[in-house]
Amino acid sequence: MKETFLSFVYLLFGDPRHNSLEHRLFNTVSLVNAFLNIFGALGSFYLPNFEVIFILNLTSGLLMFGMYILARVKNLYYSLFWPFNITILTYLSAMWFYNGGSLGGNHYYFIPALVIAMILLRDHRVWVLYLVYIGFTASLYTVEYYRRDLVTFYPNDTERYLDAGGNYIFVQILTGILIFILSRNLNIERKKSDSLLLNILPGSIAEELKKNQSVAPVRYESISILFTDMAGFTKVAEKMSPEELLSELDRFFRSFDSIIKNHNMEKIKTIGDAYMAAGGLPVQNKTHPIDAVLCGLEFQRYMNDEKEIKLLKNQSFWELRLGIHSGAAVAGVIGTEKFAYDIWGDSVNTASRLESSGIVGEVNISLATYEQVKDFFECEHRGKVTAKNKGEIDMYLVKGLKEGLADPRDPLKPNSKFKEMYLRIQNS
């Protein structure tokens, strides 16, 4: 029921995923005003000068509805800013002369009209907008002062009080609706901005940044860093169009994002065809080496599945080199205009060397990681492997979960015994 209602609201006023706050507000205000003015035209027959009131309300209502259609269908809301405001000001000015002048209640509408105009204004020429509104209202008071004969006043105080009171109450209702619409749309915009921030920063880091405008760097004594790189990327990429290349990388990295989320890992960044993630931060935990290895195994299975599909179609494919190292690092946010959460330290460099010295299709881990995961995974010692600028490093290939720890239906899925051991480490 709620989804159906929201779909209807988005159909009328615009979808927050595709339309800006100003666009949605313009759609809302123009449509509401259109219906109110048309309704006001139909309810003006009891007035002495109903012909004029009827024409003013109907004409302005139809103009507003036309602007709503153009804004909703043709996306022309910004170009309609001044026609929209001039229509409102002309209508209110005419009603001033035909419905009691300053003694009536129509002048109350100038206040929400200016508020709406200020919200919709995008070019920051606020002084122009103020001058226009001040000019209209000052002119109306001046004309009334010198030419009271041009104003149609109420025949008695009762009608004046009723009309002024009714308009005042109606403006309060209209302002309340406007504030509700605005706050609702601001909440939607806030959620969108929060979602975008969470796409580039971990949740706790994003909250700290919003509260303090900065993030203090944190040293972690033990985290696990995972690096991947597409083997043969350049060769395969040469045969693809830029659109195909980006689409393929986006598809792979989206899948990687989903995998790391399932294994309590944090995506750090992508650089070209390289992908970097880490476990044990920003919230520290003791299971990060296990999480990283599970993540790595699933990465490689995903890439192997993709390889089989490509081979069946006789298409070129990428394979993955993957390295994991556990150790100390410093994490923090750099930049002031475009924020980036990153990690630094010798452990990061070592993890990068584990990846570049890795074997395609395998999960290559360091001795430091091996010591923390050896009870969970079958590992094959590669011996000491020479890594650039790091000398010889003990490396291990993870072959899978240990016997008795895997689900019989899926060799990469932990069984209940694995989970019990995992929870003991987590809670220790």
Helical content (DSSP H or I, runs of 4+) = 55-70%
Assigned CATH architecture of the largest domain:
2-Layer Sandwich
Output the CATH class name of the largest domain: Alpha Beta
CATH topology name of the largest domain, in short, is Alpha-Beta Plaits
Helix/sheet category:
alpha+beta
Number of helices: 14
Q: Spell the H/E element sequence.
A: HHHHHHHHEHHEEHEEHEHEEEEH
* β-strand number: 10
Enzyme class: lyase
Catalytic activity: ATP = 3',5'-cyclic AMP + diphosphate
InterPro entries: A/G_cyclase, A/G_cyclase_CS, Nucleotide_cyclase
Subcellular location: Membrane
Give a description of the structure:
The chain is of the alpha+beta class and 428 residues long. The protein has two domains: 198 residues, no CATH class; 214 residues, 2-Layer Sandwich (Alpha-Beta Plaits). It is 57% helix and 19% strand. It contains 14 helices and ten strands. The strands form two sheets. Strands 1, 2, 3, 4, 5, 6, 7 and 8 form an eight-stranded mixed β-sheet that branches. β2 and β3 form a beta hairpin. α2 runs antiparallel to α7, α4 packs parallel to α6 and α10 runs antiparallel to α11. The radius of gyration is 33 Å and the shape is elongated. 31% of the residues are buried. The model has no long low-confidence stretch (mean pLDDT 86).
